[in-house]
Design a protein that fits this description.
alpha+beta, four-stranded mixed β-sheet, globular
Length: about 200
């Protein structure tokens, strides 16, 4: 595990994650139930394109993402008070070979945390179910894998409503499948780049 301590969203952060599978996109490799995703081929094309261009294929922010960025310091302070954990902010975590990574919202001595600051109706939906939303399962399990943690906290924060905090346990079987798919897509990416290189 390599920890790169630059700020998320900077040009250095974008460059570090260029052309490699990252936890926020693990849902394009594997479903929440551990099945191979139907999006994997399109994701492979994106990774190849980024590697060839040397820049992100498509990086954008919207209002919901901006809201999350603005509220995350509040969410972090609430989480630290609730859990008595100090949260260390890190830029990017890479596997030792540099071929896969994640951008955790924070690491503690024993765990990690993913913060979401959704709009009101989405937050209520999370509260009603009381479990980590399926869409974030690949990301959270991937962060546990890459950051070498046995648990990960998922926090949904809204300043005007009850908060949600769920501790997710490491799923070794899920992570083994994810790791296999990551290695598979990286191998295919290398093959395609070799083929395209021969065409030039």
């Amino acid at each position: 595990m390599k920890i790169l301590d630059f700020e998320q969203g900077t040009s250095e952060w974008l460059q570090a994650r260029l052309g490699i599978p990252t936890a926020s996109n693990f849902g394009k490799l594997i479903t929440s139930t551990g099945k191979k995703s139907t999006q994997i081929d399109g994701f492979l094309n994106t990774l190849v394109a980024e590697t060839l261009m040397g820049k992100p294929a498509d990086f954008f922010t919207n209002d919901h993402m901006q809201r999350g960025t603005e509220l995350e310091p509040e969410a972090r302070a609430w989480y630290e008070f609730q859990t008595d954990h100090n949260v260390k902010e890190v830029g990017f975590v890479l596997r030792d070979d540099g071929q896969v990574g994640c951008s955790p919202d924070g690491l503690t001595d024993i765990s990690g945390v993913e913060f979401k600051c959704p709009k009101a109706e989405t937050h209520v939906g999370y509260l009603r179910k009381g479990v980590i939303p399926a869409t974030y399962v690949p990301q959270v399990q991937g962060c546990m894998w890459l950051c070498e943690r046995e648990t990960w906290d998922f926090a949904s924060y809204h300043p005007d409503m009850p908060k949600m905090l769920v501790t997710v346990q490491r799923d070794s079987r899920f992570i083994a499948t994810l790791e296999s798919l990551v290695n598979e897509i990286n191998d295919k990416k290398a093959e395609i780049l070799n083929t395209l290189g021969a065409m030039q």
